[in-house]
Amino acid sequence: MNMITFMITMSLALSIILTALNFWLAQMTPDSEKLSPYECGFDPLGSARLPFSIRFFLVAILFLLFDLEIALLLPLPWATQLQNPEVTLAWATSLISLLTLGLVYEWTQGGLEWAE
């Protein structure tokens, strides 16, 4: 048996054993205290399922978009060592320009304003 097969078998066996042990030893007796929403020791004042503002999701999507931009531009310093660094820099510049235009558009449309 080679080493990779041995490691896969051992990790699978250990995962199954730990999952079975968890189901066997876990205490599953929920009561009203465990099922109630936690609010720093105070009695619940209202529903814990209040809807979020759509602005919150917009800011989260914008954060993910610009975080993805950083991930796409991360290999740029190494790519400038290629035979044609002009092509790499042109693609990077076009990506940054496109995202900047999108940000300016959102800003002018008032999409970044938290309260209206």
From TrEMBL:
Its main location: mitochondrion. The chain crosses the membrane at residues 52-76, 88-107. It catalyses: a ubiquinone + NADH + 5 H(+)(in) = a ubiquinol + NAD(+) + 4 H(+)(out). Its EC number is 7.1.1.2. Pfam families: Oxidored_q4. It is found in: Mitochondrion membrane. Keywords: Electron transport, Membrane, Mitochondrion, NAD, Respiratory chain, Translocase, Transmembrane, Transmembrane helix, Transport, Ubiquinone. GO terms for cellular component: mitochondrial membrane; NADH dehydrogenase complex. It is a multi-pass membrane protein. Core subunit of the mitochondrial membrane respiratory chain NADH dehydrogenase (Complex I) which catalyzes electron transfer from NADH through the respiratory chain, using ubiquinone as an electron acceptor. Essential for the catalytic activity of complex I. Belongs to the complex I subunit 3 family. This is NADH-ubiquinone oxidoreductase chain 3. It comes from Cyanoderma ruficeps.
